[in-house]
Design a protein that fits this description.
Elements lengths: L9 E7 L2 H16 L3 E8 L10 H8 L3 E5 L9 H22 L3 E5 L3 H13 L3 E4 L10 H11 L2 E4 L2 H9 L7 E3 L16 H6 L5 E4 L7 H13 L6 E3 L8 H11 L12 E3 L5 H13 L3 E4 L7 H4 L4 E4 L12 E4 L4 H11 L16 H11 L2 H4 L7
Parallel strand pairs: 1-2, 1-4, 2-3, 4-5, 5-6, 6-7, 8-9, 8-11, 9-10, 11-12, 12-13
Length: 390
């Protein structure tokens, strides 16, 4: 790939490592690209480059003019925690080479995945300035809680998604002048994305429940059993089951879906359930909007259920511990174990939520422009040396 054109603008390198945080980073990338004092480079890494989804194509389609590099990390079919640890080491080394070539003024990462952690480690040790979006959040995940806060301690500048997260960063010893509460960029593009066309929604089987379950680092067998229990607990619903992210335990969830309904590239109906392939961000959000308008419910353990769905006033049944600690809006019902009775009760309760009363703590949809403005004016020299505030 060609190196970015050198300009007198401040060079910002945004790292994206998965389909999920790419959706959140899109508004930030656009804001940086459009800012008169900034230039943008995009590095697509990790699970973007792993078959079968290869979501790298989506990054290239939207940001091809700014795409500077791809950083392979994971290997298809290797999804254990040890495999992730090895992929992390590969990522640190490769990010260091890429950053050395690009020479950015700022490196930007979001969240808590291993791609963000690898880029953050390379930046901190290599002497490049690091900005972190969505630091200070809590979410148990696999190792998410530890990795997110570790990235925060490596970062020179923080873009918190909520006031509570910003306050947590300061309590962790980050200096207050480094912490900016900007809102979540996940909210930025929601209003501009249209609801899914009724014919397309009907083509998905007009689901009454959409299921999005991600693994939490357990064995494939345990993840498979839990996903099977979730699907079994939704008898009587028209279910669209979406594929999980590329984390340890993924294969078990995929097996459970495939056992429920044989996978089909375009989501095919059988026995009251549907299986969908990867959805682009606009299509996913559009589907959630139509699901909300039709009185549907999102079931699973994705952060989208507690962030985007809250902003869309879509009721959610959050299953299990993956999001433990994350701030909750009024759209979420917690179900700790995927038992049939508990899920049935959870879905029934979710449908009684007064959608008009749902609020969320994630800002007003202008996070991307705030982040770009702050990056353009940040005092790089003054922020370079980090100290604990207490």
């Amino acid at each position: 790939m060609d190196a970015p054109v050198t300009t007198d603008r401040r060079h910002v390198c945004v790292v994206t490592g998965s389909r999920a945080e790419f959706g959140l980073l899109r508004p930030v990338m656009h804001a940086v690209a459009q800012h008169p004092a900034l230039s943008l480079s995009v590095v697509a890494a990790g699970s973007h480059l792993v078959l079968p989804s290869l979501t790298f194509r989506e990054v290239r389609a939207e940001f091809g003019a700014h795409l500077a590099e791809g950083v392979p990390m994971q290997v298809a079919g290797r999804t254990t925690r040890r495999d992730d640890a090895e992929a992390l080491g590969v990522g640190v080394s490769r990010f260091a080479r890429v950053f050395d070539r690009l020479g950015p003024a700022w490196i930007v990462v979001l969240g808590d995945r291993i791609e963000a952690f690898a880029a953050a480690a390379a930046a901190s040790v290599g002497g490049w300035m690091l900005a972190h979006i969505h630091g200070g959040d809590r979410a148990e995940g696999i190792a998410d809680e530890a990795m997110r806060h570790s990235i925060s301690k490596l970062a020179h500048l923080h873009f918190a998604a909520s006031r509570e997260s910003g306050e947590r960063l300061i309590r962790m010893g980050e200096q207050p002048h480094r912490v900016h509460v900007v809102g979540s960029p996940a909210i930025d593009d929601l209003a501009a994305i249209p609801a899914m066309d009724p014919d397309e929604f009907e083509g998905l089987g007009a689901p009454t429940v959409v299921v999005l379950m991600h693994p939490i680092g357990r064995s494939d067998e345990v993840e498979e059993a839990d996903m099977a229990a979730v699907l079994a607990g939704l008898q009587g619903e028209r279910v669209l089951a979406l594929p999980p992210n590329l984390d340890p335990g993924r294969n078990g969830i995929v097996r459970a879906i495939e056992a429920w309904v044989p996978a089909h590239p375009e989501a095919q109906h059988r026995a009251g359930a549907f299986v969908g392939t990867h959805m682009t961000r606009p299509r996913f959000v559009g589907m959630l909007k139509t699901l909300a308008a039709r009185g549907g419910v999102l079931v699973g353990n994705s952060s989208a259920g507690l962030v985007e769905a809250a902003a869309l006033r879509l009721p959610v049944v959050n299953v299990g511990p993956r999001q433990h600690g994350r701030e909750r809006a009024g759209n979420a019902v917690q179900v700790d174990t995927p038992e049939s009775g508990a899920l049935e009760t959870g879905v029934r309760t979710a449908r009684t939520i007064q959608r008009s009363q749902i609020t969320h703590p994630y800002g007003d949809g202008r996070a991307g422009t705030r982040i770009a403005d702050l990056l353009s004016g940040a005092d790089v020299a003054g922020l370079r040396r980090k100290v604990c505030a207490y």
